[in-house]
Amino acid sequence: MVGSSKQEELCISNGSTEPFQNFFESDRFKYQRALAVQKIKNDPDAVYIDIRYHLAWNVVHRRSSFADPQNAFKMVNNAFIGISSSVGSFVSLLWLAPDHVHVYLESDGEKSVENIAQEIKRLSESSILGRASEMVLNAVAGDDLWDKAYFAETLG
Questions:
Q1: pLDDT for residue 46
Q2: Block means of pLDDT (10 residues each) for the chain, length 156 residues?
Q3: 3-class DSSP state of 68
Q4: What is the pLDDT at residue 55?
Q5: Is the separation of the CB atoms in 55 and 141 below 8 Å?
Q6: Residue 67: what pLDDT?
Q7: At a CB cut-off of 8 Å and minimum separation 6, what does 78 contact?
């Protein structure tokens, strides 16, 4: 898949899935799939899944809630790291802007990214507001800190 030829790029840009179809029908792919299924049946504990995500979400109404993101970064990152075990994944802050965050997440695939993202937002919100409400501007009691929507992409 890496370093595709000009012909494959042309097929992909034209909307054709033929190069991918050929890959999925190849003997090598079928063999690797059969081997993985066999390993799972014989020893499920021998299979280790590590999925990495880049997540991003906004503060509610994109309001500038973190007046000084550079000073608030450590506190917010500690809040994310502190909830890692609660969500069953490693969570770390990548970037803190006044109105949104970018988060790095490592998951074992047991929970969906939807469930993990919503749980991270719920737990981090209470942790952040509880730790340093003076660093979070426009924090209204009973109001959410994070928007419900989020962006997710896999890494690697």
A1: 66
A2: 40 47 71 77 71 94 86 91 90 94 90 94 89 64 83 88
A3: coil
A4: 96
A5: no
A6: 81
A7: 131
- pLDDT of 97: 93
Backbone angles phi, psi at 80, to 5 degrees: -65, -45
Instruction: Extract the tokens encoding 146.
Output: 């994070």
Tell the residue number behind the tokens 């081997």, with chain if given: 35
DSSP 15: T
Q: Which residue has the tokens 């840009």?
A: 13
Task: Determine the pLDDT at residue 65.
Answer: 85
Q: What is the rounded distance in angstroms from the CA atom of residue 93 to the CA atom of residue 83?
A: 12
Question: 76: burial class by Cβ within 10 Å (0-12, 13-18, 19+)?
Answer: buried
pLDDT the model gives residue 41 = 77
CATH topology of domain 51-155: Alpha-Beta Plaits (3.30.70)
Element (H, E) at 35: helix 27-42
In eight-state DSSP terms, residue 156 is: -
- List every span in the chain annotated with CATH 3.30.70.1290: 51-155
Query: What are the angstrom distances between the C-alpha of 91 and each of 29, 81, 86, 127, 151?
Result: 33, 6, 10, 14, 15
Could you identify the residue written with the tokens 């990495």? Answer: 52
